[in-house]
Specification:
Layout: H1 3-20, H2 22-35, H3 43-57, H4 60-73, H5 77-111
Helix pairs in contact: 1-2, 3-4, 3-5, 4-5
Length: 112
């Protein structure tokens, strides 16, 4: 399954959850919007932080969503690689495995 397929599948699942729990969905949406409208950090930096946390927490759907956002922000492979190096330095072996997945996700989504 490609990363694009994983994104589509997750979006379908999220739509179902959002319909089942609309108030939770609105609350999470408001939190997400507020977190992404920082004044000191630009959007790309905020997304790099989010992706680093996704790698550390080993959340594949989060990796896909935040990698997609970084591709749209114009993040380079080198920027992603630098961030992934810090993830591995801080998280050891488990982060190394998810760093490799993240770079594969970036390569696929950036090529699309």
């Amino acid at each position: 399954m490609t990363w694009a397929d994983k994104l589509d599948e997750m979006r379908t699942s999220l739509r179902s959850l959002n319909q089942a729990a609309p108030e939770m969905s609105k609350g999470f949406g408001a939190l997400s919007k507020a977190a992404k409208t920082g004044t000191a950090l630009d959007k790309k930096t905020l997304e790099l932080i989010a992706l680093a946390i996704a790698v550390a927490d080993r959340c594949e759907p989060c990796i896909a969503f935040h990698t997609e956002a970084l591709v749209k922000c114009g993040a380079t492979r080198e920027e992603i690689s630098d961030m992934l190096s810090m993830c591995v330095q801080m998280g050891g072996g488990p982060s190394l495995m998810y760093a490799a997945k993240t770079l594969a996700c970036y390569d696929e989504l950036a090529a699309a």
